[in-house]
Write a structure and sequence with these properties.
By secondary structure, the protein is of the alpha+beta class. It folds into 2 domains: about 1-130 and about 340-355, no CATH class; about 205-330, Histidine kinase-like ATPase, C-terminal domain (Heat Shock Protein 90, 2-Layer Sandwich), CATH 3.30.565. It is built from 11 helices and 5 strands; from the N terminus they run H-H-H-H-H-H-H-H-E-H-E-E-H-E-E-H. It has a 5-stranded mixed sheet. The longest helix has about 60 residues, at about 105-170. The chain starts with a helix and ends with a helix.
């Protein structure tokens, strides 16, 4: 909702600038055309930010760059760039060169292009680089935690499992044998859960293609699984892909455990603002599914990436489902949030407003 409100604000503000701040009279039919152009470029910037910025330079030749469309698309192009956006900076230089041939005041042209195009582009690229550095630090910290957990807990759980297995085959009275059996199962379960946690910390998901590989391996093992992906798949953040993989893995495991030999169904459904995922298996008569710790853990992990997960039984079918957003919400950090708010106010508010009242233009 906020994205649409921001787009409407940019369209309205740029139309007002074209009407009141443009030096030449504007024909009435040009305003709706201009609004459509701005809206189309804003929509394009959601999918192809670099292309939208390059295209926004063309109408900026008519208005001299005044408005919020150019800095907005420049900022988004910088955020989506990997490293220094040299090609986009070259496009800004070319834009300045064309403007210099048409404008009597070279200084104003250079200042306007730098403030409205080059500065937002470089700021976006800088913030994208900071995000990548934070992601790299987080990955390094995950590996450190995985190593510490493996060294501190893995060895002891392995010894506990070995000792419990040795007691299982020992000649003990029946009550003690039952207690040892439960102890051995708990030790093996704890070792398996620790292995799953360490695997998630060490190896980032390879994307939703890993879900398809998981289904393929299940079919190879003889599990009847039907995979439906509708419509064409898109990339999702690494955290969402990892949770989606674990959800499908848990769903297939539970289906094979509680309904062996029954057909399973995995569905990935893409919508404009969400990814819907479900794993369905029939419920055997007289065996209601239990709510285990694995399902609770998946629900918690889905919430950490901004999603929602759950399970239900309807019409004799057990359904494990999840809804994931297109982007993972970042934790709120005071200083970067303040810096970004200040930069947004300067680039998208103060500068265009000054152009509107004639201070800078």
């Amino acid at each position: 909702m906020r994205r649409y409100l921001a787009a409407a604000g940019i369209v309205g503000f740029d139309s007002a600038l074209l009407t009141f701040a443009h030096p030449a009279p504007v024909r009435p039919w040009l305003l709706p055309v201009w609004a459509l152009v701005v809206a189309a470029l804003l929509a394009l910037s959601q999918r192809r930010p670099a292309l939208a910025f390059a295209a926004a330079l063309l109408p900026a030749l008519v208005t001299g760059g005044a408005g919020t469309l150019l800095p907005y698309t420049a900022f988004r192009a910088g955020r989506g760039a990997r490293g220094t956006p040299a090609a986009l900076c070259s496009a800004v230089v070319l834009f300045i060169g064309v403007q210099l041939f048409r404008a009597p005041n070279p200084t104003a042209v250079i200042i306007t292009a730098v403030v409205l195009a080059l500065l937002p582009l470089l700021v976006g690229a800088y913030l994208a680089q900071q995000d990548r550095q934070r992601a790299a630090l987080a990955a390094h910290e995950r590996l450190r935690i995985a190593r510490d957990m493996h060294d501190a807990l893995g060895h002891r759980l392995s010894l506990m499992s070995v000792q419990a297995a040795a007691l299982e085959v020992a000649e003990l009275p029946a009550p003690q044998q039952e207690a040892v059996r439960r102890l051995a199962e708990s030790a093996r379960s704890a070792a398996g859960e620790l292995h799953d946690v360490l695997g998630g910390l060490r190896a980032p998901s390879a994307g939703l293609a890993a879900v398809e590989d998981l289904v393929t391996r299940a079919r190879t093992a003889g599990v009847p699984v039907e995979l439906t992906v509708s419509p064409a798949p898109r990339e999702v953040p690494e955290g969402v892909a990892a949770v989606a993989y674990r959800l499908v893995q848990e769903g297939l495991t539970n289906g094979c455990k509680h309904a062996p030999g029954a057909p399973l169904s995995v569905r990935l459904e893409w919508q404009d603002d969400a990814l819907l995922l479900s794993v369905v298996n029939p419920v055997p008569p007289g065996r209601p599914p239990a709510r285990g710790r694995g399902l609770l853990g998946l629900m918690e992990r889905a919430e950490l990436v901004g999603g929602l997960a759950g399970h239900a039984v309807t019409d004799g079918q057990f359904r494990l489902w999840a809804v994931f957003p297109p982007a993972v919400p970042e934790p709120a950090i005071a200083e970067p949030a303040f810096v970004r708010l200040a930069l947004a106010g300067i680039m998208f508010g103060l500068v265009p407003l000054s152009l509107l009242v004639g201070v800078a233009g």
